[in-house]
């Protein structure tokens, strides 16, 4: 040992002389030395001298400010010392002074400077540079003089890795070495049960920085004590050699786990392409690439070897994609300090502070010399922990031998005491016998990008001599390129594929293939068609399962109120007491579609029921559990479950959409009193279907219904019972439940619910209780609980006004059918059957809920009164077993189904066959009813037409019946007839109102009969006024004046025989006016439309009537001319009245129509008092003459 030390010292002296000579002859390679005093301390304190070799930047030899180590990491030294004093690891009486020089990673220069530090400066500790070539030489000199050497740079470990304590006895080290890198690699292989692997080494003899040789030696030493076998090991010096194909073939035949250690990273890509070409690019192969120089931790961004960076003589080969395939199958095995550093709370903010500390003690390096940087490097973390580790060793040594120079300058002593763990910036540091920390990680690519960072998958760390394995990421991320499974070290059938037994199919493959081909030829087309149909069905089903979110725009609200009334009235007119099966559809549809929370919509052309939950729920985000439940409900497909279509989240309210069942709920069917449902087969079939649906729910992820009741059991048009409104409890609990809906809840549910009626949860046992109450309703054909009307009135107050009309119509329908049902029940029931309920007390719903919740020895339950005599008595016992007070004693749904099968003796009940049989019995009767109703309908239509034709002209009425609009029509010349009763007001005052009505009815009936005899249209009669017209709507040329004149004459003649019953001495006297001219006629109004006349002709005719005399016909000059032009031989007798002032018209020449000599009764009768007539005529003429004189006088003035 002494010989080696003296020899090393001699070499150091020679190198020192050489270094000094170079300093004198090479001014461009000068060495600058700096000395720093100790920190300000009091007197009589110990000062430890520390010497440093600072690596200078090779890009600028003359400027020390370019030194990256000093400016990026030097500040960690005073920070570590301050922490040692703060933690009281070192007493404050111990201080430090530093001397450092810049050097350029030259071995000779470093040796000389180190000797100079020890001999001249009297250094007590040496901190070498991070250069891998310099550190080993400095370590030899430090060992020779027994000076502690503090190593800290990660780049220096290559040459120190294979060393032991005897080679560097004064080494204080916290960086790993290849020994533990190899041990961790062997532990990794054991962890995945890889007992065999191949090792490919690419050693670059010209590059002393390569570490593959050191790693190979360490792996060989570790394999000696393990059960791992190297199946194939080879060394490559030139990847371009012709042996690459042989190597790839050998690897494929002998290994699946391959370790690739390459000193030259550029050759790794070429070798990866050889592996790809050799077929070693499948998921069966795993490639482990160790970080041979242990520098990867300083740059977690992977420099991908598959990306070609340099251009060879032939240019880019364009095979990056092929090399990338190998990269996806590769893992990187490396040492990493950032993994533990990031977990240390002292790490954050350290980089920023370390730069500022470089400008102070002990370096005092200004920004002008060291340069301006923002953050320190990762090397600063290692330097900090190295100084702190040095302080821990000093502390242990001071405890043993006191604070003196023989203690802190004794390198072997400090090295021996360098074993105490501490919490540094790199994490929890442990230093074992060889003074190395050991934390290695396994990483792979994080993504498929060109520059992909590493994803740390596993961590292997030595703690107290034990190797611990920690998974940092999921196994699926680790093996995503290998099909999600760990590839075995040896294939199942061996490397050559002969390790598996050959199957019979392989031995007789030809025969099998021939038979299969023949079979395929025969039924190939059928299989293809069936497979295509099944595939299409599966695709449609998947598409439907993903569509539980329904856009509100696709929901179309159905307004069925008015059509339903018309349809229901038509249906009631055709329905007999026996054919009331389909009538239930309209009533249940109305009650279901127009209820408070349910609305009838159409979605994709199909009717659906929408349950609105209010707009407040839209503001709350839908939870992941809620969306998962919606997906589950959307996939439910059972014949006895109503289909959940989805939720609408983009409308004004949150809407739950369910499939529409045409016949409504089971409750509606029972309450309708329909004769068909009062059948044993229907009851048995419905009970069985309820059990099947509930069995499916109890075995589904929902587990239970929770709010099962008869109104939640719907019936479709095929009379199948479907349980609905299951699930979505997170929505249902937001709505207030009515007291009557609590009647179906089990006692334990009511007790658990408490005061909050919204939060209702259920169990399978509570569903069995509710099922028993539904069975009771079906057996009794009545509600299970008989409540008073106050509950119904309270519920009806909460409904909207629009629902009341629909409910009234349904009530009328139910009353009609209930009467028939009661009659049939009385005929069918035998004596001693169902008891009358007239004397039973009806309870309030809240009272029933309270009594059920209270329980007791004899709990309250509904009374079972079977509506049918031929029901199985065992069904009654089953109901009582299902509603027992203790939930544990209630049977499960499987046991209920089993008992029902025993009751039916294993027979299958087909309700549709039974329904068809009943419908067949009604077929003949229904056909006769249809014929009878058709005749009645035709008769009613005829009566309606007659009434309509009396109200309007026939052609106008026909147009209105066809839905056509009647446009106003212009008539060139018509004759308008007006009449009223003289002194009608005085006559009415003398009679009672009823007698006035009878009088007018008798008079107008006489007039109407006369109108029917002529081509005259009666427009209207208002009070004592009577308006007629001729010439419209049927044009009759110029005969309209003749028709109205003849009718007027007959009106006056008919008064001779007309008597007033209460005043036989009085007679009816008429004033009649006629005028001819143009007119417009049309239909006015929608409600009670009228055929009205418009024009001046109507006004003039009215003035003719008002200026006429009793029992006289006052006609205009136009009418008089038309009468004489269209009469034969002057049949009409007229008399000129002269010029008369007509209100609104001025002076007009008018005439009296006296009679028609050609027709019987055409002359006005003379039976009245002639004196009275003449007196009235004279008074009228006198009055008219006075009016005429006053008119002339006014016009003259």
UniProtKB/TrEMBL annotation:
Compositionally skewed regions (Low complexity) per UniProt: 831-842
Domain Guanylate cyclase: 975-1105
Compositional bias ranges of the Acidic residues kind: 788-801
Catalytic activity: GTP = 3',5'-cyclic GMP + diphosphate
Signal peptide feature range: 1-21
Xref: SMART domains: CYCc
E.C. numbers: 4.6.1.2
PANTHER family: GUANYLYL CYCLASE, RECEPTOR-TYPE GUANYLATE CYCLASE GCY-7
Protein name per UniProt: Guanylate cyclase
Organism: Heterodera schachtii (Sugarbeet cyst nematode worm)
């Amino acid at each position: 040992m002494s010989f080696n030390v003296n020899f090393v010292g001699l070499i150091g002296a020679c190198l020192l002389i050489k270094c000094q000579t170079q300093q004198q002859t090479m001014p461009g390679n000068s060495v600058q030395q700096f000395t720093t005093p100790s920190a300000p301390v009091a007197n009589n304190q110990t000062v430890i001298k520390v010497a440093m070799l600072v690596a200078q930047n090779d890009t600028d030899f003359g400027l020390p400010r370019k030194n990256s180590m000093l400016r990026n990491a030097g500040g960690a030294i005073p920070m570590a010392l301050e922490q040692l004093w703060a933690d009281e690891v070192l007493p404050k009486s111990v201080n430090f002074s530093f001397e450092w020089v810049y050097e350029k990673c030259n071995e000779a220069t470093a040796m000389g400077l180190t000797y100079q530090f020890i001999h001249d400066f009297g250094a007590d500790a040496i901190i070498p540079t991070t250069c891998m070539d310099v550190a080993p030489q400095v370590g030899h000199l430090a060992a020779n003089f027994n000076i502690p050497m503090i190593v800290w740079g990660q780049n220096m470990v290559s040459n120190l890795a294979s060393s032991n304590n005897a080679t560097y006895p004064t080494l204080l080290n916290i960086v790993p070495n290849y020994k533990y890198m190899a041990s961790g690699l062997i532990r990794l292989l054991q962890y995945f049960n890889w007992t065999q692997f191949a090792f490919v080494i690419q050693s670059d003899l010209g590059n002393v920085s390569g570490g593959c040789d050191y790693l190979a030696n360490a792996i060989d030493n570790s394999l000696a004590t393990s059960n791992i076998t190297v199946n194939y090991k080879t060394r490559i010096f030139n990847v371009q050699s012709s042996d690459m194909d042989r190597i790839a073939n050998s690897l494929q035949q002998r290994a699946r786990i391959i370790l690739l250690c390459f000193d030259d990273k550029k050759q790794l890509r070429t070798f990866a392409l050889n592996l790809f070409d050799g077929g070693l690019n499948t998921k069966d192969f795993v490639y482990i690439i160790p970080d041979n120089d242990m520098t990867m931790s300083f740059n977690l961004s992977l420099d991908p070897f598959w990306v070609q960076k340099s251009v060879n003589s032939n240019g880019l080969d364009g095979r990056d994609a092929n090399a990338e395939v190998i990269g996806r199958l590769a893992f990187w095995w490396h040492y990493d300090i950032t993994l533990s550093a990031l977990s240390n709370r002292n790490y954050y903010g350290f980089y920023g502070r370390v730069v500022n500390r470089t400008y102070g003690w002990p370096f005092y390096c200004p920004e002008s010399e060291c340069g301006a940087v923002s953050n320190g490097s990762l090397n600063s973390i290692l330097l900090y922990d190295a100084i702190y580790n040095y302080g821990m060793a000093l502390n242990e040594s001071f405890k043993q031998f006191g604070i003196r120079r023989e203690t802190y300058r004794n390198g072997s002593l400090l090295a021996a005491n360098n074993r105490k763990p501490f919490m540094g910036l790199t994490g929890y540091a442990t230093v074992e016998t060889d003074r190395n920390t050991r934390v290695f990680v396994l990483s792979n690519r994080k993504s498929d990008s060109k520059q992909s960072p590493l994803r740390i998958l596993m961590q292997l760390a030595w703690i107290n001599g034990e190797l611990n394995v920690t998974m940092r990421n999921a196994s699926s991320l680790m093996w995503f390129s290998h099909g999600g499974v760990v590839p075995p070290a040896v294939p199942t059938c061996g490397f050559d594929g002969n390790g598996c037994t050959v199957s019979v199919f392989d031995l007789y493959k030809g025969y099998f293939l021939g038979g299969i081909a023949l079979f395929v030829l025969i039924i190939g087309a059928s299989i293809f068609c069936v497979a295509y149909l099944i595939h299409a069905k599966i695709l449609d089903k998947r598409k439907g399962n993903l569509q539980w979110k329904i856009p509100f725009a696709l929901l179309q609200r159905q307004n069925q109120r008015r059509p339903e009334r018309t349809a229901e009235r038509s249906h009631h007119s055709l329905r007999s007491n026996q054919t009331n099966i389909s009538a239930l559809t309209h009533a249940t549809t109305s009650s279901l579609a127009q209820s408070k929370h349910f609305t009838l919509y159409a979605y994709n052309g199909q009717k659906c029921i929408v349950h609105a939950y209010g707009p407040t729920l839209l503001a709350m985000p839908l939870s992941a559990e809620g969306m998962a439940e919606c997906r589950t409900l959307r996939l439910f497909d059972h014949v006895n479950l109503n289909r959940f279509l989805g939720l609408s989240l983009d409308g004004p309210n949150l809407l739950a959409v369910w499939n529409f069942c045409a016949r409504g709920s089971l409750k509606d069917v029972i309450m309708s009193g329909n004769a068909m449902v009062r059948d044993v087969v229907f009851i048995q079939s419905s009970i069985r279907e309820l059990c099947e649906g509930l069995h499916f729910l109890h075995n589904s992820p929902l587990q239970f219904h929770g709010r099962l009741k008869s109104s939640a059991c719907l019936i479709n048009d095929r009379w199948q019972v479907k349980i609905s409104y299951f699930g979505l409890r997170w929505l249902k609990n937001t709505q207030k439940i009515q007291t009557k809906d609590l009647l179906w809840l089990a006692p334990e549910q009511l007790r658990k619910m408490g005061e909050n009626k919204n939060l209702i949860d259920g169990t399978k046992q509570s569903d069995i209780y509710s099922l028993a109450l539904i069975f009771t309703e079906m057996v009794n054909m009545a509600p299970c609980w008989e409540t008073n009307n106050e509950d119904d009135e309270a519920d009806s107050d909460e409904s909207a006004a629009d629902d009341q009309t629909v409910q009234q119509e349904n009530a009328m329908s139910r009353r009609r059918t209930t009467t028939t049902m009661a009659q049939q029940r009385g005929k069918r029931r035998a004596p001693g059957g169902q008891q009358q309920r007239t004397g039973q007390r009806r309870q309030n719903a809240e009272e029933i809920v309270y009594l059920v919740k209270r329980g007791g020895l004899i709990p309250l339950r509904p009374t079972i009164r079977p509506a049918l005599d031929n029901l199985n008595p065992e069904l009654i016992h089953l109901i009582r077993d299902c509603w027992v007070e203790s939930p544990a004693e209630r049977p499960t749904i499987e046991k209920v189904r089993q008992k029902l099968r025993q009751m039916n003796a294993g027979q299958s009940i087909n309700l549709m066959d039974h329904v068809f049989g009943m419908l067949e019995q009604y077929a003949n009767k229904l056909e006769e009813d249809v014929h009878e109703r058709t005749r009645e309908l035709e008769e009613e239509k005829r009566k309606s037409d007659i009434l309509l034709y009396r109200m309007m002209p026939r052609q106008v009425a026909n147009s209105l019946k066809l839905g056509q609009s009647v446009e106003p029509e212009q008539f060139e010349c018509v004759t308008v007839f007006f009449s009223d009763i003289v002194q009608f007001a005085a006559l009415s005052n003398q009679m009672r109102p009823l007698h006035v009505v009878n009088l007018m009815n008798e008079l107008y009936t006489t007039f109407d009969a006369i109108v029917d005899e002529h081509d005259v249209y009666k427009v209207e009669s208002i009070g004592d006024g009577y308006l007629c017209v001729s010439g419209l709507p049927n044009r009759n040329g110029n005969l309209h004046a003749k028709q109205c004149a003849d009718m007027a004459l007959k009106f006056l003649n008919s008064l001779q025989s007309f008597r007033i019953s209460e005043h036989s001495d009085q007679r009816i006297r008429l004033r009649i006016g006629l005028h001819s001219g143009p007119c417009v006629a049309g239909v006015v109004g929608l409600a009670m439309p009228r055929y009205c006349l418009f024009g001046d002709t109507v006004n003039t005719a009215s003035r003719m009537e008002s200026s006429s005399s009793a029992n006289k016909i006052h006609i205009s000059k136009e009418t008089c001319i038309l009468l004489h032009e269209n009469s034969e031989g002057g049949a009409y007798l007229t008399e000129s009245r002269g010029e008369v002032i007509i209100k609104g018209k001025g002076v007009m020449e008018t005439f009296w129509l006296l009679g028609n000599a050609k027709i019987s009764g055409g002359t006005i009768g003379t039976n009245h008092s002639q004196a009275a007539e003449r007196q009235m005529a004279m008074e009228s003429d006198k009055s008219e003459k006075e009016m005429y004189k006053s008119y002339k006088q006014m016009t003259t003035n």
